Amino acid sequence: MSETVRLTPEEMTDLSLKVLSHVGYGPDHAQAIAELLTTCQMDDCQSHGLFRLFMCAQTMQAGKIDGHAQPQVAPSDNAIVRVDAQGGMSLLAFQKGLPHLVEKTRTHGIAAMAINRCFHFSALWPEVEALSAEGLAAMAMVPSHSWVAPAGGTRGSLGTNPLAFSWPRMGKDPFTFDFATSAFARGEIELYKRAGKPLPEGVAIDKDGNATTDPQAALDGAMLTFGGYKGSALSIMIELLAGPLIDDLTSLESMEFAQGTGGAPYHGDIIIAFDPDQFSGGRRQANDARAERLFADILDQGARLPSQRRFAARARNTARGYAEVSAQLHHDLLALLD
């Protein structure tokens, strides 16, 4: 077996649809998930690409998700869009609520979307980039399961709690970042385990609170936040904004809800969008130029902007019409169809 296989976007989507349909997702959810996984894989985002089909299957097998749920968008006359995912995956709910969020942001200058009662496994950058594609700046936050110990702690209280942001740039890829507030993403630890590789120092502790580089010991113990107390405080903020603020679960409560069944965490998702035209008082063009001067100064020093490598991978894979996927991963995914 070769080390990698080449898959076109159509082949990735087709494989995803087959797996998702086979394990119990309805056509609407399967399509939304398949599109997201293909997008991430074409960006060489291995931890959130086709690999995530395993979590989708595990979530269905856990018996708590509704693979046919149709999200409901609540009517409102303010700047908040509320979408009830009805116990389904978040991606379809995001698609349903996105046009309303864009409309409200252009009306009010700033607006937010709260997605409630959703299972969430996916990267956040596609959400914020969907808004920057509309000319809006945006940020998104979610909790997860309580896999992460707070700074100075010995057990998981926090989620991996990612934060994503995207800034639109005329004629250029947006300025986008998407990172977990844990020192390592959960999916990355799982990939290290699959590869039989030790973790870097300082990213996890075992079940007794001792530092470990063993992926399985980390999965059985707890992850650590990046940046010590600073990352820990940022993670707690995300717990609050994406949990109690929007009337949804914290990572501790999400873990309790799962009752040890595995699969994707169950909680909420908050996305906040900003209209640069209104915030700049009609001087968007001049202020865009100021932003570009900042980006240029960063690049002139030899530094890179977040997501540059991802955008380069997207351009490369799009030009050649395929992305490379681990042959073992491809083999294991096909086994899900048995």
TrEMBL record:
Gene3D superfamilies: 1.10.1530.10, Hypothetical oxidoreductase yiak, domain 2 (3.30.1370.60). SUPFAM superfamilies: L-sulfolactate dehydrogenase-like (SSF89733). It holds the Pfam family Ldh_2. It comes from the Bacteria. Keywords: Oxidoreductase. Its EC number is 1.1.1.338. GO terms for molecular function: oxidoreductase activity. Belongs to the LDH2/MDH2 oxidoreductase family. This is (2R)-3-sulfolactate dehydrogenase (NADP(+)). It comes from Ruegeria arenilitoris.
